[in-house]
Design goal:
Elements: E1 15-21, E2 32-35, E3 40-46, E4 63-66, E5 71-77
Antiparallel strand pairs: 1-5, 2-4, 3-5
């Protein structure tokens, strides 16, 4: 990790969709508690299925559990704070 490395620059107030796959291997075969700093997100889907709580448009998160082999689709909001 290089604290001075910047791979992406995102315009303040923009919204992005991220897909995150938990590819834990044999040594780390556990669900991963995922936390994003300085943004909130809305879970759009888990493995392509819309979660029941997605119907609430204000159900924003900073942390969620991502199971092994699971793909999360997240709407990242950086204008909440």
């Amino acid at each position: 990790m290089d604290i001075n490395r910047i791979d992406e620059t995102v315009k303040r107030g923009s919204t992005e969709i991220w897909e995150i796959l938990n590819r834990s291997g044999k040594m780390m075969s556990i669900p991963h508690l995922m936390h994003l700093h300085d943004v909130q997100f809305l879970i759009l889907s888990r493995n392509g299925k819309i979660p029941p709580d997605r119907m609430k448009k204000t159900n924003y998160n900073t942390t969620t559990l991502n199971f092994i082999g699971s793909i999360l689709a997240l709407k990242i909001l950086d204008d909440i704070y």
